[in-house]
From TrEMBL:
Keywords: Hydrolase. This is Alpha/beta fold hydrolase. Pfam families: Abhydrolase_1. It comes from Nonomuraea salmonea. One of its GO terms (molecular function) is hydrolase activity. Residues 26-130 form the AB hydrolase-1 domain. PANTHER family: HYDROLASE ALPHA/BETA FOLD FAMILY, PIMELOYL-[ACYL-CARRIER PROTEIN] METHYL ESTER ESTERASE.
Length: 254
């Protein structure tokens, strides 16, 4: 396990690293998740040439620290992740980022352009959304006030999302989970979709085949490759790792 201090109070981001050639590949998880269980099979897949791979957990999630004085906004996550990558000696990386992690990765690429050479978004959040009514993809966390969520609302979320998602969500700090969900609902400024369109690096958006994202034609017009993955749902890398790895091979540097 590797780590880097990314917060004035000494909090550390941690990651699992697989050895290989540069440039590095950085895998970022979604809301209430952790990178190693979601990406390990794909990062080590025989279809992919061996590159240095960092399966990294954002502050508040998985094996990383949970500072209570951290805002957990998309921008704060992006800056903390940038600090970790700088300390890990990463530059010009391929960034593979799922769901909420995709929103963080877009903000990272816009704010710290030298860190990201190409970006693969995996059914990522591109737009802000209203916290209510409850949305299945984000579990309705942002519909609660912070204290309401921490004092018991999380139990309703646990029952709603089911045991598979909760198996990783329960590793997250409750305040980190809530603040991140609220920031995701609010979106970035400019919005993630606008930031993505303005990036000049190679970009791709992977989605479950048959469920094309809103604004797909506008994404294509902005130079984003929009690729459907068969036999998959939101967790594409878990649902069809073979097709996911095969697609990454076509998108990432050899």
């Amino acid at each position: 396990m590797h780590d880097a201090i990314v917060h004035p109070g000494g909090a550390r981001i941690r990651w699992v690293e697989l050895p290989g050639a540069e440039p590095a590949r950085v895998y970022v998880h979604g809301l209430g998740a952790t990178s190693a269980p979601y990406y390990a099979e794909v990062a080590a897949h025989p279809l992919l040439p061996r590159h240095r791979s960092l399966l990294i957990d954002l502050l508040g999630f998985g094996i990383s620290d949970r500072p209570q004085d951290f805002s957990y906004t998309l921008e704060a996550h992006a800056d903390a992740l940038a600090e970790a990558l700088h300390k890990a000696g990463v530059e010009g990386a391929s960034m593979i980022a799922h769901s909420m992690g995709g929103a963080v990765a877009i903000v990272l690429a816009a704010r710290h352009p030298g860190l990201v050479a190409d970006l693969v978004l995996v059914d990522a959040n591109l737009d802000p959304y209203p916290a209510t009514p409850v949305r299945p993809g984000t579990s309705g966390i942002a519909a609660y006030g912070e204290e309401e969520f921490v004092s018991g609302g999380w139990k309703e979320v646990r029952d709603r999302v089911g045991p598979h998602w909760w198996s990783t969500m329960r590793l997250a700090d409750l305040r980190a989970l809530h603040r991140t969900a609220v920031s995701l609902a609010r979106g970035s400024t400019p919005a993630m979709r606008e930031l993505l369109a303005g990036l000049t690096i190679p970009r791709a958006f992977l989605f479950p085949e048959g469920d094309e994202p809103a604004g797909a034609e506008e994404l294509r017009a902005a130079g984003v490759r929009v690729v459907g993955i068969p036999e998959s749902g939101h967790n594409i890398m878990l649902d069809n790792p073979e097709a996911f790895a095969r697609t990454l091979k076509t998108l990432l540097p050899a």
